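User: My instructor asked us to take a sequence, write out its structure as tokens, and then describe one feature of it. I'm not sure where to start. Here is the sequence I was given:
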Amino acid sequence: MGSLLNELNKAYKILGVEPGLYIRFRYKNEILEGVVMPPYVFTDPDIIVVKLKNGYNIGVLYSEIKDLEIIEMKRPEVGSISSEKIVQRKDLPKIIVVGTGGTIASKIEYETGAVKPSTSVDELIEAIPEVLDIAYIESETLFSILSENMRPEYWEIIAERIYNYMRDEAYKGVIVTHGTDTMSFTASAIAFAIQRKNIPIVFVGSQRSSDRPSSDAALNFIGAVITAVKAPFAESVIAMHHETSDTKIAVSRGVKTRKMHTSRRDTFRSINSRPLALVDPFKKDMELIEKEYIPRSKEEPILMNGFDKKVALIYSYPGIDPEILEFLIEKKYRGIVIAGTGFGHVPEYMIPVIRKAINNNIAVAVTSQTLYGRVNLSVYQTGREMLRAGVIPCEDMLPETAYVKLSWTLYRTDNIESVRKIMSTNYVYEMNPRLTEDLFLR
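Assistant: Let's start with the prediction itself. The structure tokens for your sequence are:
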């Protein structure tokens, strides 16, 4: 251990441990064991990081570690896959996990403290062995990207791959690991791209990478596996922490879900809607919240893939320049979603250029940037002028859902009236016809 130990933090040197060792120790009257993880540049010098048997990482002050034992001197490299360690039960429901990257499939780059996508789906499963008591899991790593790099053409690849798995009756559910920043976009895209779904498609991610303390990766993934196996619904959903503490996983429709906080583990919220279900990852059970949903079926799904790339999403703001729309007209965009203020308004001086866009066969759809509530362009004069110009009100759709739906719609038709009809049709509960007081997040 000599040369490596000399390079480690004070805590590692005092305890005489290095990354890869399997140790057992007493911490606050509890016996813990796990693999010693490497520190990164911002790790407190008095702390060592240990990956526990349950897959969680903890940071422990060396001074609070008692009765330290080194159980194994040689361990496989942290994160490496060892197939003989994964023993699966073929009597359990079979699911497929499709990896696309994101924080849940990332590791800390210990020299810089930055997070980079590098963990395979198999490594994730190996790190969370509890899931092997719930399902027989197959996996495929389709992409290994951070979600800010997701593109509509990738949605098409994901949709086609999921569709092929859904046509195989052996699979009872699909899980997609994905970065949280654009997860709701992709979950919405899959909701529209695969119609008449027969099994659930569960998107899951994490706010903190699986190899750092307080990661939410393990619990989220367990919740996603339970959902894939037990959910009575066959929809494109997101399974993430319901609260900051490790209690329940909220399962929400992708088309009604928004990431609401940059770092909290309970970042996802159902907007103008409730979660479909809450999952208890410890009891391995599910509580249904919504009674209306698309049920599992024996019917074969329908692939309606394809997204028009010439669609823009813009936000109205005081002083917005009409040249923004002029640019989109000049570049021959085919669709524009405007997240308006309040009921869906834009400044009055924007209406002539909106009319020009529509006269150029560009579909202009309107949502509200307030998120909660619905668009109503009949209340004020500005809204009525927007309606006369020909905009398409999107009810209570989220801006990102409207963007995805318009992109999906324009791939299918050039006719503005057909676009209007499709955008006004509720396909996958993307619009809630009735909003009640309890749906507003306070």
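For the description part of your assignment, you could build on this observation: The chain is about 25% helix and 25% strand. Try explaining in your own words what that tells you about the chain.
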